[in-house]
Amino acid sequence: MRIGELSKATGVDVETIRYYEKAQLLSAPARSDNGYRTYTQAHLERLAFIRHCRALDIPLAAVQRLLTFVDSPQSDCGEIDQLIDAQLARVRARLASMHALERQLMALRGQCTGPHSAAECGILHDLVAAAHGEACVCHQN
Amino acid sequence: MRIGELSKATGVDVETIRYYEKAQLLSAPARSDNGYRTYTQAHLERLAFIRHCRALDIPLAAVQRLLTFVDSPQSDCGEIDQLIDAQLARVRARLASMHALERQLMALRGQCTGPHSAAECGILHDLVAAAHGEACVCHQN
DNA sequence: AGAATCCTTGGAGTCACTACAGGGTCAAGC
DNA sequence: GCTTGACCCTGTAGTGACTCCAAGGATTCT
Lengths: 141, 141
Description:
The structure is a homodimer.
Chain A: H1 3-10, H2 14-22, E1 30-31, E2 37-38, H3 41-55, H4 60-71, H5 78-109, H6 122-131
Antiparallel strand pairs in A: 1-2
Chain A binds a DNA duplex through residues 2-4, 13-16, 18-19, 23, 34-37, 54, 59-61.
């Protein structure tokens, strides 16, 4: 299978596949006489594994760790749990701060209703007030 | 005020302040005889404004647009509204995908309960199954 | 005087790609 | 045989918003 076919089969961009090879996530495939990469079914599965992990927003370094577990099935799975837990914690922390952000932006957006000049804009006023250390609607609590 | 004092006054890293100057967000300050940057109160306020926007996760390019409105109070504020709306939309889109992510990771985490080998690990099993195109707990729906 | 702290510049590293530039290879059609 | 177009190769640079470091000069404290 050439790189274009692998790309179509997995939906992963050709450049991204080459990037994974350089980043040592995908083993370098055999080359045909003309220098083209020739992939096997094993490569396809490994790539699908990587993309599935990435769909879960797992960093590439953690994906690499997970791949070593795929390759050594006898090892203890404790670190796998830890990796997923860490990822869950990251996602939850980000989620909480994004919720706060949404509230803050909504409060800020509420400061400006109709069309008028920047000088009269409640949003800008609020952002400038915050810069003076004064209270702002978005960071009141 | 020297850069270290500005840094302490605002809680912004010295390197970040220099970065803002290079990125044209903060105007280049005067220099004292020894070449040290000398900041004014106006710089401090501008920096506080930038950081407040960044706390709302507004991209630096958008912050730069906002700063031009601070400098020209007579202009129409329509674009300000648009900027905040765009930011709110970005945050909400990210929020939705992060919620989905949390659900997926929780389902995946539920596959592994006790300590055992990687070969028996439900998490790894699920990730590999997904790589084979089979159903996985995390992307069932 | 020496040490610690501060300041300067410039460049590289982070993450996970993405986008070229400048070439080589191959199959189909004329 | 030649052109066209799709594919492939390598290597490098860019993205955003910093962060870190090296190598040196200035200032301040003891």
